[in-house]
Amino acid sequence: MRDVLRVPGGRRIDLTAYDASAVPAGPADKAAGLAATAALAPRLADLQERLYAASTAGDRRRILLVLQGMDTSGKGGTVKHVIGPFNPSGCRIRAFKAPTLEEQSHPFLWRIMQALPRPGEIGIFDRSHYEDVLIARVRELVPRSQLDRRYGQINRFEQSLAEDGVTIVKVFLHISYEAQRGRLLERLDNPAKHWKFNVGDIEERALWPAYREAYEIALERCATDEAPWYLVPADRKWYRNWAISKLLLEHLEALDPAYPPGDFDVDECRRRLLAT
Amino acid sequence: MRDVLRVPGGRRIDLTAYDASAVPAGPADKAAGLAATAALAPRLADLQERLYAASTAGDRRRILLVLQGMDTSGKGGTVKHVIGPFNPSGCRIRAFKAPTLEEQSHPFLWRIMQALPRPGEIGIFDRSHYEDVLIARVRELVPRSQLDRRYGQINRFEQSLAEDGVTIVKVFLHISYEAQRGRLLERLDNPAKHWKFNVGDIEERALWPAYREAYEIALERCATDEAPWYLVPADRKWYRNWAISKLLLEHLEALDPAYPPGDFDVDECRRRLLAT
């Protein structure tokens, strides 16, 4: 999946050319997709435990999954479904909202630093520092010169993380304008979902082309070897969950974390324990 | 379960009088226990979503599950199994280890404050501020006068949390001396579990009576109406998981969180959305 979904960096891509309902390299249909996703769970759980175990012996490696996408693209749903197989104690999940007053008083990467996964953990960001070049660009929240510097700041920051053992997996959840309309209508039609609906969501839709452009620029400038971007078509939730689970599995397999050997004499410990 | 497992405060209980392999008010056997636990999941998930939804409309209520118990009593396993039904985004899990240098430079409740659940969340502490009257008592880490003040400090702290909307559920996982030996032996017998084993665990067993006494005193002095202690027999993992799931369910049901009504005109929003 890494090769299939990876965004080429350094050049502008046209997001309108990507079909959000496509299922590249995916299972044949929804039923097959759900089964394939469930089948990945034991291996994901095993690798996560190994990653965590390795950290207790000094291995600093860890994973950071960054989720970005338009409203209703399924960032929250991805967290819920993709994290399912893992031990929640080893996951560090953070949803970034509008910055607090304290966060605003710091450089934009400050709050990101607070939320990073520790060695052995799997970190998941629901939104991230990319908001600072997305909504910040569309809404002109900072002067253009400051905004333009942020791409380089992000790349240098991510390179430092990679050097410290963080495997960064950045996922852009690509939904269509039509799918977003349908998902917002679903929220309106279900009173139990009204708390997720915001009148501002309708107004934001008018800015869709501006957000798309902001994403295209972020993908162009920040898809690096140390921290690649993956474009996941997300109109079909079953494909989205399968593809991201598969991406995580591939990255965990590449890390190939091992249980550390004990630093004690097993027979001696057994004897002493049996004497208690 | 709340009435069955609740520890009476204000008087000393004798932990040796509690059978750690008992299954009070529980399912008949392991198979029934696993089925009963699985059957609780949908209701737990539904109530968690309501609790979170309510917080978006200003409801400050939240839950804090505190897990304490001897080594191998299953604190980590409880987190993994009991949290399963919940959306991990709404859970704030924290395992407390030996305090860092920075934590040591602050009052003992400082690091606890950093880890509290936000409104709408379910917080889970794997160990907690109680370590500061448990290992701190057994190992005499602080002068006795300072230690004795901590019980009152804990009670006042927990009362303030309760007043701010935190439902505190403190669980003592009660295992037997023999069960601990068996679980440590299992870790020795399985190389994939060696990373969980520590030679110091054997030496700590010699302090079992001192730890038991420290727990008895903490239960006596800190079982309050605002923050009750529950004693969960934990030799049988299936019972432990069922009982704690059931405790959480009862507390969530008592909160009875409701989806907040939308503050918008549904028909008007639908019209506007369809026009986009």
UniProtKB/TrEMBL annotation, chains A, B:
Has UniProt tagged this entry with the keyword Glycosyltransferase?
no
The cross-references to SUPFAM superfamilies, in alphabetical order and at most eight, read: P-loop containing nucleoside triphosphate hydrolases (SSF52540)
Q: Which InterPro entries match?
A: P-loop_NTPase, Polyphosphate_phosphotransfera, PPK2-rel_1, PPK2-related
Q: What are the UniProt keywords, alphabetically?
A: Kinase, Transferase
- All copies of domain Polyphosphate kinase-2-related, residue ranges: 29-255
Family annotation (Pfam families): PPK2
Q: State any single GO MF term.
A: kinase activity
Q: Does the keyword Kinase apply?
A: yes
By what name is this protein known?
Polyphosphate kinase 2 family protein
